[in-house]
Write a structure and sequence with these properties.
single chain
Length: about 250
């Protein structure tokens, strides 16, 4: 009989594995955040400057839907590119979980060795997220412009999109881990494999992720400072979930 580790067991082991490693994990998160923030800020400032120049030349100060969609396209492309960092982050936590050397330089692993496959996985995940959030964003944009969408319509649309996004994202959740285990596979093969091994496990992973919500609320009370420790804890727990999943997959 296959026996999977419980949420409590995974979390307890995650705390043990992260002992003495929080410093590097926090530094890793800060480095990634600074890079992503800098790039995003540059895109936003460029867009803001264009609007400012147009306003000074006597044009409208309001953002049109076309301009909003253009900005969304730019930020989506940027998110796909920076999503490659996730390969390095995944490597860092796998190394830590397996008692191998884990360093901040792991962050750039995906850019050095597995760029195309990392970019392919990132593109699918980010485009999935965009496809499921963009309709809501457009409706919200039109609502602010007084184009007829109401709060009830927005709420229904949000629920429908979440019901589509959550199962798909959970199915793809192991792709980066699998990339490091099976670097010879294509990005499409890795995502198909992720869906296969997650069959029958999406609900338990969803519950595992939701179990961090109380700690997330506590982090809000600390003005977000607590997330510096919460994010590594969550990442390690999900890494151990993957290792447990694969161990039982091989037994099966």
């Amino acid at each position: 009989m296959i026996q999977y580790a419980s949420r409590a067991q995974l979390k307890e082991k995650a705390r043990e594995q992260m002992a003495g490693h929080y410093g590097n994990a926090i530094l890793l998160s800060i480095c990634r955040s600074l890079i992503v923030f800098s790039l995003t800020f540059a895109v936003s400032m460029t867009f803001t400057m264009i609007l400012t120049v147009r306003t000074l030349m006597g044009g409208s100060a309001e953002t049109s839907l076309a301009e909003y969609l253009l900005l969304t396209a730019c930020t989506t492309l940027l998110s796909i590119f920076t999503g490659v960092f996730q390969t390095g982050i995944t490597l860092f936590y796998l190394n830590t979980a397996c008692s191998r050397p884990a360093v901040t330089a792991n962050l750039f692993y995906g850019f050095k060795y597995l760029f195309k496959k990392s970019l392919g996985i990132s593109a699918v995940l980010i485009l999935l997220n965009t496809a499921c959030t963009l309709p809501f964003d457009i409706c919200y944009f039109l609502l602010r412009s007084g184009k007829g969408f109401d709060a009830i319509t927005m709420a229904i649309l949000c629920i429908v999109l979440m019901c589509i996004y959550i199962p798909l994202s959970l199915g793809l959740s192991q792709a980066y881990y699998l990339l490091l285990d099976f670097p010879q596979y294509s990005a499409m093969e890795l995502m198909k494999l992720s869906f296969r091994i997650m069959k029958g496990h999406k609900w338990e992973l969803f519950c595992l992720q939701m179990s961090f919500l109380p700690l997330g609320f506590l982090c809000l009370l600390s003005f977000g400072i607590g997330t510096l420790w919460l994010v590594p804890y969550m990442n390690m727990t999900q890494t151990l979930y993957f290792l447990d999943l694969m161990q039982n997959e091989h037994r099966h």
